[in-house]
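Propose amino acids for all 520 sites.
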């Protein structure tokens, strides 16, 4: 093992941890007696600079040609750098939203926890070993529990954190139990080693038991039904910047991990001198072992779409509405993850290049979706946070007359909610279009068509509850015309996010080509 190269691979995580320590030093050492606003601004600025340093480290690792390091423990190619950069950008945006917040007197501790949780997300995105995955998940999860409870004066925050922690502990137990089965069946914790053993020996019955346990554990992380019960309370009780972090960074990291499980380990054979027949045999054997697992995942995906959209119709709280919306979007994304093992057969003479290209063509739409959804979710929670700070509530009626009280904020809300609904030419439309096209490309037959038809139908349902918020913002007469003022930094961030949603929708190839460049 080359420890120098391994250190270079984990340099982004190291940069975030150093930034977390610097935040504490600056806040508690130099600015302890400063005004609250100055402490919040300084903590957020140091955190953003830490994210910028980690971004540089990710690009440096890629430019130095680092691939899989540490006995296949971490990867710096393909899924990993694209997800890591998205995590860092989204983390920086949530930190900037903190500047307009008043929920804590300890901004240094808050930013430090955010950075450490983001470091856990980076580990998850690059992990290729069960032990490394579990360490990353726990680092991320413990940070999220703390962030949820950070509004110490709010009873809902404490209640949400306790529910989140209890459900999270159970999900971690399921996940670790499943990992122990994988190790017991294959004798290794390396995902590549597990793949090889399954290809050689075929899936044992306990293999499916292990996968059911892992699906339960990871289903909690992405708020998939029936593991979603924590999400509405957490989204409602957590401080707005923390809720934005949970809705974006946690989702990107968790779905990147799912992509790694479902075919991502094949990228570790990139560059190896393998015959076409050997690669095709390896590919067909590995993918054939997922049949029953995929059937379970499809059931979970359909249930997640249905429950998320129907439950959102009954919500009077915009935060809870966004929570059930996030659950519904998780169902759409799972449709894109599930068909990976069912890609079209690769010719015997095609070789490894065709195998990897087939996998890439199905991973790109999923990565595109989770990145754009994370960006839009941060903007949505940013708007909710501003309205809630002024009106004291996140109920639907709090948004009545928003167009008159703050036209820019109402315009941002319009763009983001229509994007979440999948209205063209916004980026949310292309995210759904690409994902559904990838599902249909799996092959002929009624199943892909039925799944896409169901997803489109429930996308139409989602438009209804998004329009309920927009109707209050633009149509219903305002009972209170007191202006809703936002901090200049917060407003600039929200306008930047809305502009990105519009630009990426008008030029979808910009983001698609950027993600594809990491597979080159």
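Proposal:
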């Amino acid at each position: 093992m080359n420890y120098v190269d391994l250190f270079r691979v984990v340099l982004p995580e190291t940069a975030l941890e150093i930034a977390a320590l610097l935040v504490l030093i600056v806040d508690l050492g130099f600015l302890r007696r400063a005004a609250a606003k100055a402490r919040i601004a300084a903590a957020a600025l140091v955190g953003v600079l830490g994210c910028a340093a980690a971004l540089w480290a990710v690009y440096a690792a890629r430019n130095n040609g680092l691939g899989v390091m540490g006995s296949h423990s971490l990867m710096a190619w393909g899924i990993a750098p694209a997800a890591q950069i998205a995590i860092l950008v989204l983390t920086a945006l949530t930190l900037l939203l903190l500047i307009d917040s008043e929920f804590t007197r300890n901004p240094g501790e808050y930013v430090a926890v955010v950075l450490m949780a983001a470091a856990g997300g980076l580990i998850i995105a690059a992990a290729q070993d069960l032990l490394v995955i579990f360490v990353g998940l726990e680092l991320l999860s413990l940070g999220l529990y703390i962030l949820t409870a950070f509004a110490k004066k709010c009873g809902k925050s404490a209640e949400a954190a306790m529910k989140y922690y209890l459900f999270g502990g159970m999900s971690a137990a399921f996940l670790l139990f499943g990992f122990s089965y994988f190790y017991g069946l294959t004798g290794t914790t390396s995902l590549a080693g597990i793949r090889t053993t399954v290809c050689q020996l075929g899936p044992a019955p306990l293999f499916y038991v292990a996968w059911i346990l892992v699906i339960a554990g990871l289903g909690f992380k992405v708020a998939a039904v029936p593991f979603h019960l924590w999400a509405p309370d957490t989204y409602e009780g957590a401080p707005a910047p923390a809720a934005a972090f949970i809705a974006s960074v946690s989702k990107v990291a968790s779905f990147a991990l799912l992509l790694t499980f479902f075919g991502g380990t094949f990228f570790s054979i990139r560059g190896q001198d393998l015959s076409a027949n050997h690669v095709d045999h390896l590919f067909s054997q590995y993918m054939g072992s997922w049949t029953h697992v995929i059937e379970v995942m499809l059931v979970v995906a359909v249930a997640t779409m249905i429950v998320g959209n129907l439950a959102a119709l009954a919500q009077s709280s915009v935060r809870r509405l966004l929570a059930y919306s996030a659950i519904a979007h998780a169902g759409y994304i799972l449709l894109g993850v599930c068909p990976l093992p069912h890609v079209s057969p690769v010719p015997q003479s095609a070789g490894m290049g065709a195998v990897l290209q087939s996998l890439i063509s199905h991973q790109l739409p999923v990565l595109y979706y989770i990145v754009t959804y994370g960006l839009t979710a941060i903007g949505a929670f940013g708007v909710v946070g501003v309205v809630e700070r002024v009106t004291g509530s996140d109920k639907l009626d709090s948004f009545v007359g928003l167009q008159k009280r703050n036209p820019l904020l109402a315009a941002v809300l319009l763009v983001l909610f229509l994007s979440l609904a999948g209205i063209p030419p916004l980026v949310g439309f292309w995210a759904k279009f690409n994902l559904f096209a990838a599902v249909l490309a799996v092959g002929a037959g009624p199943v892909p068509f039925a799944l896409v038809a169901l997803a489109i139908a429930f996308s139409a349902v989602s438009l209804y509850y998004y329009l309920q918020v927009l109707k209050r913002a633009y149509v219903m007469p305002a009972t209170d015309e007191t202006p809703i003022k936002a901090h200049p930094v917060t407003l600039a961030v929200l306008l930047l996010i809305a502009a990105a949603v519009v630009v990426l929708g008008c030029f979808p190839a910009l983001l698609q080509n950027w993600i594809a460049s990491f597979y080159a």
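The longest strand covers residues 68-69. The chain has a mean pLDDT of 85.
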